[in-house]
Structure formats: structure tokens, C-alpha cells
Amino acid sequence: MKNLFIRKPMHEKTAESSTRLQGSLGSFQLMAIGLGAIIGAGIFVITGQAAALYAGPAIVLSFIFSAIVCTFTALCYAELSAMIPSSGGSYTYAYVAMGEFPAWIVGWALTAQCLVSAATISVGWGGYFVNFIRELGLPWPHLFAGAPIVYSPDGGWTLSGSVLNIPAMLIVATVGVAVSIGIRAATLFNNIMVVIKLSTIALFLLLGFRYINIDNWVPFIPENTGIFGEFGWSGILRASGLVFFAYLGFDVVSTLAQDAKNPQKTLPLGILGSLGVSTLAYIATSLVLTGVVIYTALNVADPFSVALDAMGSQFGWIKWIVKLAILAGLSSAILVQVLGQTRIFYAISQDGLLPASLSSINKKTQTPLVSSILTASISLIIAGLFPISILAELVSMTSLFLFAVVCLGVLILRYSHPEYERKFKVPLVPWIPAIAILGCVGQMSFLPATSWLQLIGWLTMGLLVYFSYGIHRSKLRHSK
Fold it and tell me: Is residue 3 part of a domain?
């Protein structure tokens, strides 16, 4: 017990980082992976809903505020990923900065983030897929189109009438195969999906710019209704909390250190580059969307379609492109989460805290095949059984928790080990990490009690695994 906070020496993690997997990812590929994770349904759905319900045209300010917090967090990820270029991301950083037990907690939370995030996005993908094929006139039975159980704060857990969410399970299985085949196949799939959705966004912006009516931006900040969070400045802040989650995904890039070429250089570029492109896309899209259509009309599942209708019937065909782009965007986001989790299992297994089979590299694919199969299987089961509302809450809570820990790790290592070489450094330390921590904790405080209970329940399971298995097989403990 006295060694719960035994820390991984920097030289050991540096030595591990020299062990490449396929080592084929450059800055462009890493940036594309980050974009694949970040740009999903958020830009196509959340933008309209947040504008209609909370911020109005000032939704652009909400995106800017969230981007600032995310940028500060991304800077911390960039410093640590360049200093400790090893698979495992937040888990690895915590092992070096805080010790084994905190690292396990972070690794376990990171596992929830990736596994459940992949499942959450898959459920959203399944909903879009079923709607898409039904609009084509093809049938899809309700029994196999949703989770068998649903939850509401008033009614608790109830049966939905469905048996399994088959579309969600199928997309997880598909990306699982791509990840298992190898990193090149996975990145090729992701690159194609990213090109499709970025091209669609660019097409929408080019067409929509001509149809902007500046009267739709007046008032830019609608007057508060008298209820906190409904328009006014409080609405901008509330919408900022909602759209914050549209930025999630850049952190997954840090888990691919051992797949990257020259990770000290390419990882920071991949993390910050993907976040920068996403921010510009979100800001431009929100301006055009609220300029073409009055914000009160955007509280729908497909705000892009509403805007295209406002432009004229001649653009009806673009709706189908947008729907396909949403499916592409969600597909790449699922793939990146599954890919990131395989590297997390790989890193934790290398330290002995999970079975060694999870870090074994298949000779043919040069990937951790067992980790890939396990990750896809767990996410597939979760996607088939649980509703998106419950899954999304856990993803949000774990993501904010991890962001806060990573920013704290930067502060700890800056003062405890100033001698470590840092290829990339966060400016204005301690202010930027401190502001990021406060921003993340502040966002956590606004999440419902059920989110806190989910996080506590998941971490409790992690404690059982660690004290029954990991603590007895830790390679670092046995080496002392």
C-alpha cells in the first residue's frame, strides 16, 4: 500500500516510446485522426439546437469560449505528448507525474471515455442510418433499431420494445475490422470519411454565404427570458457547455504516440491542428446557419436541411449529401475512439496492470490484435443495449475529469522535474493550465447527479480490478 504512488521514471517511458508499432503516422494523418474524432454530429446537430434554445446568433461566441478552454487543455496535451511520446495518453502522463494508483484511475476513466464514446456515437449513427434508409422507402423493423432499455429521471429504467440496436452494432463491428487489419487501413478509412465531411461543410458554407440575411442576426444576443441559461449572456455560457462536447476527440491523438513518426513534433501538430481546423469550421458554420435561417427555426435534428430549404428547392439534392456526410463523420469518430482504446489497453498491459495478451503485437498486422477485438466487442455490446442519453453523460463526465488531470500533470511536472526536456512548452504557466482546470471542473459541476453516480460507479469497478489483479502484477512494483 505504501507504494500506491510509486512513479514511473521518465527514462523508462522514453525507452518504451522507442518501440514503434507500425510507426507510419505523420502530422497530416494525426491531424486527420483528430478531425475524425472531433467533427461528427456536433456540427450538424448541436449547433442548431444550442442556437435555438440558449444563445441565438451569439452561438458563435459560445463556440469561441469553449474553444478557448479546449485550446488551453490541448496545449497541455501537446506538452506532455511531446515530452512523453508513449501510447496510453493521459494514463502514461499520470504514471510519470503522480504515480501508479492515480495512473490506474486515469487509465480506467480513459477506458470508459473511449469505449462508451464509441458506443454513444454508434447509437447516433444507427439513428441516422435507420432514418436515411426509411426515407429511401426501405423498411427497418423497430425491434432492431434501438436499445431494449431506456432511462428517464422520472420513470427510471423501462423497456423500450426493441430487442437490440443492430445498426449501432454493425458500425462498431465494421470499424473494429478496419482497426484490426492495421493502422494504415484504419487511417485510410478515416481519411476518406474526413474528406467527405469537410467537403460537405465547405459546400454548405460556399452556398450559404450568398443567402445570409443580416436581419437574422438581430438581435445578436437575444434578451434573457428571465430564466438562467435561456438567452442573454447566461444563455451563451450554457450553450458553451453544450457545444464544449462538440470539441471532444483531440485527446485521442495523444494515445497514438507509438504509431507516429517523430512523435515529439507530429503529436503537438496533430492535436493543435485538428482543434484549430474544427474551431474555424464550427464558427463559420454557426455564422452561416444563423444568417440563412432565423435561430428559432433551428431546434431540429437536421438544421442543415432547414437552411438548405430556405436557400431554395434547387438545393434539395444537397440534403442527401449532408445526410451521407453525417454518417461519414460519425463513422470516423467511432473508428478513432476504438483505435485510441486499443492503444490504451496496450500501454496498461505493458505495465502489467492488465493481462499481457492485450499488448501482444500480431506479426502480420503489426497491431495489438487482442486489444482491437476486445475493444470492438465491448463497445458493440454497449451500443446494442444502452440508450444514448445514459452513455453520453458518462462520456462527458470522464472527458472533463481526464482533461483536468492532464492539466494538473503539466503543473506537477513543471515544478517537480523542471530538468525534463520539453520539445513543446505550454506558455504562461501556471495560468493556462490553471484556467483549463477551473473550466473543466466548472463544466463538471453543471452536469446532473446521475453523471456523478456513473463516474463513481465506474471508478469503483476499477478499484476492484486494480486491487484484485493489477497491484499484484505491476512490473514497476516487482522491479523495486
Answer: no
